[in-house]
């Protein structure tokens, strides 16, 4: 199984606050249910919890607590639901998908949200609720940057769905270009600032070395993730996976391709660590004051945390097991008639045992 494949990521494990995972588990199901993103059933709650999204939320924001942790938890929940929403029937209808993406993206614009198409109302409402809490304490510059990132993330679903409908395997350059959009790590980096109540100077983020770090981070995570998720993605008909790309280009067996991906990861990690060592010099060159320097170093910490947390999560989650049937629509987005009136008790029960 690809989830048995280990990569060497020499970044420390993340320690989280006591009780944080339990809070995030309860919060994830409660918010998703209240927003209408998942049905209020035990089966939906258990399926959702089995994905272990709380591990990601608490790992991405280990110092956060209270409502700051809730914001990060809700963002991780939202991105997972968006991914599954557009991977399902919504992604097979280009007109509907475009209208849904336009409505969700409009939430972050100065003119305000536009009406969502029928079937996307709950997701649009959740987007508006989350964005309002994300933006509230942040500067106009952060809001502009984060809003742009949300738009990139949402529009990537249209390109991904088009690639899936075409059924063709992209070349390596095309794969990398789209994968750097669909990974959405830029969204999570902005969220780390929001949860941690700091902001990285825009001139630091625009520096070529810092931009390269963000690109390397995405490539490392994507390479590992594509190995661990290959069976899951094959089951739902996706071709936008590095393993498939290299198999198609080289005509080599999967075991050899996975070894090549492992070597690629080793090289990417070495380049990331070398570039990370230049960040203090970047701060010197940009004449950062002490607070700006601290924010820049927190950004570097967030980059490495996200790699470690995402990698560990991909080995533990149930998300990458092949699905039955079409492999496309997750169980938690469906409701069986016998479950419609079932009370959702699983969130509290599982939260106490975390």
Keywords:
mainly alpha; 354 residues; disordered C terminus; 17 helices
Task: Write up this protein.
- The chain has helices at 20-34, 42-50, 53-60, 66-87, 94-106, 121-135, 140-166, 172-182, 185-196, 202-205, 208-228, 230-235, 242-250, 254-276, 279-285, 290-316, 346-352.
- It is mainly α and 354 residues long.
- Helix 5 packs antiparallel against helix 7 (140-166).
- It starts with 19 loop residues before the first helix and ends with a helix.
Summarize it.
The chain is an all-alpha fold and 354 residues long.
Largest sheet: none
Count of strand segments: 0
Tally of helical segments: 17
Query: In terms of per-residue confidence, which ranges show pLDDT below 50 for 5 or more consecutive residues?
Result: 337-354
* Shape designation: globular
The average pLDDT is 90
Radius of gyration: 20 Å
Instruction: State the separation between the terminal residues, measured CA to CA.
Output: 27 Å
Label the structural class: mainly alpha
Order of helices and strands: HHHHHHHHHHHHHHHHH
What is the share of helical residues? 55-70%
Tell me the strand percentage band: under 5%
Give the SSE map.
Layout: H1 20-34, H2 42-50, H3 53-60, H4 66-87, H5 94-106, H6 121-135, H7 140-166, H8 172-182, H9 185-196, H10 202-205, H11 208-228, H12 230-235, H13 242-250, H14 254-276, H15 279-285, H16 290-316, H17 346-352
Helix pairs in contact: 1-3, 1-4, 1-17, 3-4, 3-16, 4-6, 4-7, 4-9, 5-7, 7-9, 9-16, 11-14, 11-16, 13-14
